[in-house]
């Protein structure tokens, strides 16, 4: 085969979606204690460039949290489990005030349990609530009961278990729906999605990526819909770097044709 017969793209043009906690950074004892490597933002910036900006974070955290950890990057982000979304053009979609209010009501309803047990940690996010029991694993059942009661008192919210946390989010929002929304827009449109995550809250997005012809990559063990696995956070960083390298090489080959 002559070199002219080689297709310009060695792999399909990719859109990379990644989770944050447990995937881009190691899990820490509390949400504020995560250690973000100094080089992470720079590493991501390069991959973002090589992938023509088809790179987004899908996270349970709020968008502002991720902006702070990945400064000066301002990536497309779905925050609070898909309740918030900042598109690639920088526009942040407005969260329905009824959803914001319902989340506040849930947080208010579980606050007596938190006041009685200061080792619990409540995160009151825009349109979602997380109740962490990492510092008090013995309170998992009490957390579940309180969150179930609180969610039943509002409309259209559901519970999602995470790592030593129980979260409430709107039924209509998920990382899967967020991934599908990004994929309908430039610069993601027409690309092949890859989603990397580590948690049960990532399952919707594994399924969405695979429905759209791409791949879900699960970090760690446990049942999953993802077709591929990756061992640890360091391997995720290496994978993102490698995919950036391939995109850069494909671009060079394409320029030669
Ligand atoms: O979707 P993610 O980006 O993985 O975010 C999921 C939740 O992550 C955070 O909680 C988890 O990470 C903490 C720091 O490592 C850890 O202390 C906690 O036990 C984990 O559950 C974050 O605080 C939540 O808001 C996110 O929804």
UniProtKB/TrEMBL annotation:
Record-level Gene Ontology MF annotations: trehalose-phosphatase activity
Keywords: Hydrolase, Magnesium, Metal-binding
Pathway(s) the chain acts in: Glycan biosynthesis; trehalose biosynthesis
Name listed for the protein in its UniProt record: Trehalose 6-phosphate phosphatase
Cofactor(s) needed for function: Mg(2+)
The keyword Lipoprotein is assigned to this record: no
Organism: Devosia oryziradicis
Family of this protein: Belongs to the trehalose phosphatase family.
Signal peptide annotation: none
Keyword Magnesium assigned: yes
Alphabetized InterPro entries for the sequence: HAD-like_sf, HAD-SF_hydro_IIB, HAD_sf, OTSB-like, Trehalose_PPase
The EC number(s) this enzyme carries: 3.1.3.12
Domain of life of the native organism: Bacteria
């Amino acid at each position: 085969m002559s070199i002219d017969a080689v297709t310009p793209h060695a792999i399909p043009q990719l859109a990379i979606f990644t989770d944050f906690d447990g995937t881009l950074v190691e899990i820490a004892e509390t949400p504020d204690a995560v250690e973000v490597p100094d080089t992470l933002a720079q590493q991501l910036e390069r991959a973002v460039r090589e992938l023509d900006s088809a790179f987004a974070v899908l996270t349970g955290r709020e968008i502002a949290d991720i902006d702070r950890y990945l400064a000066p990057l301002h990536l497309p982000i779905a925050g609070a489990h898909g309740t918030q979304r900042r598109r690639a053009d920088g526009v942040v979609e407005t969260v329905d005030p009824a959803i914001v209010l319902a989340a506040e009501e849930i947080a208010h309803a579980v606050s007596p349990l938190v006041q009685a047990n200061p080792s619990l940690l409540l995160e009151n996010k825009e349109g979602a609530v997380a109740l962490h029991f990492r510092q008090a694993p013995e309170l998992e059942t009490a957390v579940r009961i309180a969150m179930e009661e609180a969610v039943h008192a509002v409309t259209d919210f559901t519970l999602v278990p995470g790592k030593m946390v129980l979260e409430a989010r709107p039924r209509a929002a998920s990382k899967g729906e967020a991934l599908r929304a990004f994929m309908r827009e430039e610069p993601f449109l027409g690309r092949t999605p890859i989603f990397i995550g580590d948690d049960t809250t990532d399952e919707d997005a594994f399924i969405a990526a695979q429905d759209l012809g791409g791949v879900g990559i699960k970090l760690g063990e446990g049942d999953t819909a993802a077709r591929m696995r990756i061992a640890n956070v360091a391997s995720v960083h290496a994978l993102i770097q490698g995919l950036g390298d391939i995109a850069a090489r494909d671009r060079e080959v394409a320029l030669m044709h």
